[in-house]
């Protein structure tokens, strides 16, 4: 396919992919790297996020929640994203955070949103795509990007829905460049009755690992943990890949 027919941002992302897809399949404004393969949602909540109704409800709900609860907001400048850099938003949902990352990297940079939900991606590409903001359909446990190909990764409110959390975290650590940061945010609660809360969430397919488990996985992947805490309603972990040693 003639790559000039692709959305600008997607065209800019192609060189970062591990393998250029053939054919390049653009669907509703995003690059679909999973094709027609049907995948079973990880639970009822993920099934909701893969539906039109769930997507329609999620976007205004997250905007309201982030206005009211500061801890739910993306880490912004703590990501240390360079102007002109490349940002990856894993499990981008409706693309609002990806668009913010696009503003942070500026016109010379690029922000890439990745998700498995066609309906979220349709909304993201329709509302948030820009010359420097593009969207891919791919799985967090098998990111299609090359090693050390991005300057920062966000994975916000996603891991609770992923079958293989360790694989997703390993992928975040793999694709970030030395000196780059990975920010993880997910639902969390460590107060009285935490086990009962986790068990109830589990019934809806929502896993609630604490910050220690997430931090331990990122450390095992060679990252340095900068911050790890659980303050209801969220777990926040920020980690940095050690800069390359040129000595
Ligand atoms: C609660 S939404 C969060 C969206 C966005 N990150 C935010 O903070 O507003 C969770 C998103 O993760 C996506 N997701 C779940 N499992 C995924 C996986 N294995 N790979 C990629 N995305 C996934 C869902 O489709 C959904 O869009």
UniProtKB/TrEMBL annotation:
Keywords: Methyltransferase, Transferase. GO terms for molecular function: methyltransferase activity. Pfam families: Methyltransf_11 (PF08241). One of its GO terms (biological process) is methylation. Gene3D superfamilies: Vaccinia Virus protein VP39. InterPro entries: Methyltransf_11, SAM-dependent_MTases_sf. It comes from the Bacteria. Residues 88-183 form the Methyltransferase type domain. Signal peptide: none annotated. This is Methyltransferase domain-containing protein.
């Amino acid at each position: 396919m003639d790559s000039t027919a692709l959305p600008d941002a997607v065209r800019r992302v192609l060189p970062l992919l591990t393998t250029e897809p053939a054919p390049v399949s653009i669907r509703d404004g995003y690059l679909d790297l999973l094709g027609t393969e049907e995948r079973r949602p990880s639970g009822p909540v993920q099934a909701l996020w893969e539906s039109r109704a769930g997507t329609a409800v999620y976007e205004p709900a997250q905007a309201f929640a982030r206005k009211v609860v500061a801890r739910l907001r993306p880490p912004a400048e703590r990501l240390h994203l360079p102007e002109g850099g490349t940002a990856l938003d894993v499990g981008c949902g409706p693309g609002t955070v990806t668009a913010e990352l696009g503003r942070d990297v500026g016109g010379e940079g690029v922000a890439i949103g990745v998700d498995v939900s066609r309906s979220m991606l349709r909304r993201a590409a329709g509302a948030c795509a820009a010359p420097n903001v593009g969207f891919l359909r791919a799985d967090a446990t098998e990111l299609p990007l090359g090693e050390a190909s991005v300057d920062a990764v966000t994975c916000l409110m996603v891991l609770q829905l992923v079958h293989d959390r360790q694989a997703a975290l390993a992928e975040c650590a793999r694709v970030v460049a030395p000196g780059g940061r990975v920010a993880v945010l997910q639902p969390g609660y460590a107060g009285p009755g935490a086990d009962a809360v986790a068990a109830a969430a589990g019934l809806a397919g929502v896993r609630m690992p604490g910050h220690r488990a997430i931090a331990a996985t990122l450390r095992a992947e060679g990252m340095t943990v900068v911050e790890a805490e659980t303050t209801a309603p969220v777990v926040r972990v920020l980690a940095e890949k050690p800069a390359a040693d040129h000595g």
